[in-house]
Write a structure and sequence with these properties.
Chain B is 47% helix and 16% strand. Chain B is α+β, with helices and mostly antiparallel strands. The chains are: A alpha/beta, B alpha+beta, C alpha/beta.
Chain lengths: 146, 397, 158
């Protein structure tokens, strides 16, 4: 691996920055994602920071069943992220459309719009599951880079 | 003065929902605002017509994760009215308990978000840490922190034991102390006052004209609360005050929600001390006789209204949901006009919006012919810097 | 008869004032009044109700009854909810706007246009609500004859 690749991988493993995007969710998963920042779960101690712009993010955390109105914007956000980048689909809605599967306003599941690396089920997803998902993802990147 | 038009589509690091505000700027003041929505449209009312009443219960719960109980209870009240079911008193009391616990978690969440928007991040961390106590109560009672699904057609799914009741009371007592601290903060801390007083003004008659509901309306002196005006569940038997304020601004909305927390704690104690005996549910047939019903509910954000039409089958003919924030949006346009750009994130957050936002603000300067794009986070930081230059600095707290 | 005095009062006052334009008025339970109204008289009836203290238009529910489309206007003084039902033929659906009395009704009236295809006379120009920008403007999801068919190209992204 080139030095620059090693550096990028190391910074991703040590401190993954996430961008949260709500693609039409009910907010249940969103408040649990934000909850992961708060003192009881505190993902910042793992170096995980919630960023506000795609250009700073390593991981795109997408909640919601992807409404049609949001699908284009979701793709734009993803394209603006620099490589290497990963997508986490959180919640039953992110995984498969959840309870909204079959609704006309929805393209069910994030993986119909973006390539997804990690699926985290739950309705809503628990903060511990989010942390677990990020850790598993980092582990797989680590294993792949060896 | 150069006129600039800003399409403002929000990206909240704290709460993410899509909405789009078009702001016309003159210098740093907003001379016009319109609201464009629809990013969260999933097609639920149509889907509801293809699902049975019990399936719709789980669909309607997910209109909103923060006030899911409000939506299911309003829906189930309609269904039970049409089915002419005699819901047991104990079930109604448990529903009321969940309604008030939901109000507590929602208002604490909002206090944190308001703090975050102001730049007062410590308040955000404190309130959300305390909110975990309420989420623990909800999890103990129902099995889930969010989307408790405690309702079923004819009653509730789970009962409350004496031990659970004691655990809930312990946590509520802890929260009562913490809330006194927040009230003091909201009403006495000069930095908070500087950011919230005279910001986002909504006069009493405009609030009524534009159909504002909930704490947003009550902060403009509108004495309206569905729990008192059209009592449902067991609110008719509870002793509580409707909190109003007459400052018509964000400060008023802050005070109203903080004091409503105290009223909710009182009510939770009253309910747990007087839980009626009896069954927790009655059997209701799957097919509901034809009829129509309309009911409203005081959700944490305001009046939530549902209409339901049944046609003799096991699926509804028409289900309509109007969530509280839609009613408040027309007032937001009013509140933003004449205000400062720096106050926009806080004014919008002050109605406690329950929508999905991915914000992007594009600033168009017609003279320069250039378009710039601001994210919500950038606008939020701009607001904080603007006030810091005027001596309002939360980092000193 | 019934002891719902406020409800009976508003019902009979409406029947008297709009004699002929109001039919099927009923107090179905405490704090609920339902009535059918002549469509052309809608703005006048709403303005009159507002003047009697029913100044909160909680929401507007569109409906499809086959031969007719229409809407329910749920208006309240926060104690009693009065629901005014108006119909319009499916062949050429149109309703008058109530924005003059209830400026807060903007989103509710746009929804009637987007979801049912009911033309609301007097609605100012503006972006549609709630359907997405690229949704076809001649399709009305909440009509009973509209069925959702998922597009064939919605498969897993690469």
């Amino acid at each position: 691996m080139k030095i620059i690749d090693k550096l990028i991988t190391w910074s991703l493993l040590k401190s993954p920055w996430i961008l949260h995007f709500n693609s039409g969710a009910c907010n249940g998963c969103d408040i649990e994602v934000v909850d992961a920042l708060t003192p009881k779960y505190d993902i910042e101690r793992f170096g995980i920071l919630l960023k506000a712009t795609p250009r700073h993010a390593d991981i795109l955390v997408v909640s919601g069943p992807v409404t049609r109105q949001q699908a284009k914007r979701l793709r734009t956000i993803y394209d603006q992220m620099p490589e290497p980048k990963f997508v986490m689909a959180v919640g039953a809605c992110g995984c498969s459309g959840g309870v909204f599967n079959g609704c006309y306003g929805v393209i069910p599941g994030v993986d119909k719009t973006l390539p997804v690396s990690v699926y985290i089920p739950g309705c809503p997803v628990r903060p511990e599951a989010i942390i677990d998902g990020v850790v598993k993802m980092i582990k797989s990147v680590e294993d792949a880079s060896k | 003065m150069t006129k600039i038009t800003i399409p403002f589509g929000p990206q909240h690091p704290a709460l993410k929902e899509p909405e789009n505000f078009m702001l016309v700027l003159e210098g740093e003041q907003i001379s016009g605002a319109t609201i464009n929505l629809g990013y969260n449209h999933r097609g639920m009312e149509k889907a509801a017509e293809d699902r049975t009443y019990i399936q719709d219960l789980y669909l309607i719960e997910r209109v909103c994760g923060i006030c899911s109980h409000s939506h299911t209870t309003c829906y189930i009240t309609n269904v039970e009215e049409l089915a002419k079911a005699e819901t047991p008193k104990r079930a109604l009391a448990i529903r009321t308990l969940f309604g008030e616990l939901e109000r507590v978690h929602s208002h604490l969440l909002w206090l944190g978000v308001a703090g975050y928007e102001m730049g007062f991040e410590t308040l955000f961390m404190y309130t959300w840490r305390d909110r975990e106590q309420v989420l623990d109560c909800l999890e103990m009672l129902s099995g889930n922190r969010v989307h408790y699904s405690i309702n079923t057609i004819g009653g509730v799914r789970r009962d409350i034991t004496a031990e659970l009741s004691a655990e809930v009371k312990k946590r509520i007592n802890f929260l009562m102390e913490r809330t006194n601290y927040y009230i003091k903060l909201a009403t006495e801390e000069p930095t908070v006052l500087a950011r919230t007083q005279n910001v986002g003004k909504l006069p009493h008659d405009v609030a009524i004209e534009r159909g504002a509901v909930g704490p947003t309306a009550r902060a403009s002196g509108v004495m309206r609360d569905v729990r008192k005006d059209d009592p449902y569940l067991i609110y008719g038997e509870l002793d509580f005050k409707v909190i109003t304020h007459n400052s018509n601004d964000v400060f008023g909305r802050l005070v109203v929600r903080a004091l409503e927390l105290v009223e909710s704690y009182k009510m939770i104690h009253q309910i747990l001390d007087n839980l009626p005996e009896g069954p927790i549910a009655v059997k209701v047939p799957m097919k509901i006789a034809p009829g129509e019903a309309v009911n409203h509910y005081e959700a944490p954000r305001g009046e939530d209204i549902h209409y339901l039409k049944s046609n003799g089958t096991d699926k509804p003919d028409r289900l309509k949901v109007r969530a509280p924030t839609l009613a408040n949006l027309q007032s937001v346009a009013y509140m933003l006009e004449g205000g400062w750009l720096a106050d926009v994130p806080l004014v919008i957050a002050a109605i406690d919006p329950c929508m999905s936002c991915t914000d992007r603000a594009a600033v168009w300067n017609p003279k320069k012919g250039k378009t710039e794009v601001y994210s919500w986070e950038e606008m939020r930081k701009m607001g904080i810097e603007h006030y810091k230059r005027r001596g309002v600095d939360f980092t000193r707290l | 008869m019934s002891d719902f005095t406020n409800e009976e009062k508003i019902k009979s006052e409406l029947e008297q004032k709009f004699h002929g334009a109001i039919t099927n008025a009923a107090v179905t339970r405490s704090r609920r009044v339902w009535l059918d109204a002549e469509t052309a008289k809608l703005p006048e009836i709403m303005a009159w109700l507002k003047a009697q203290g029913y100044n909160h238009l909680a929401t507007v529910t569109g409906f499809d009854e086959g031969e007719n489309l229409g809407a329910y206007y749920h208006v309240t003084d926060t104690h009693v909810i009065v629901t005014v039902k108006v119909k319009t033929p499916r062949a050429n659906p149109s309703l008058p706007s109530v924005l003059a009395a209830f400026p807060g009704a903007l989103s509710y009236e746009r929804e009637l246009e987007d979801m049912f295809g009911i033309k609301v006379q007097g609605l100012p120009p503006g972006r549609r609500y709630p359907l997405p920008e690229d949704f076809p403007t001649d399709q009305y999801p909440l009509r009973k004859d509209w069925k959702f068919v998922p597009p064939a190209n919605e498969v897993e992204a690469k």
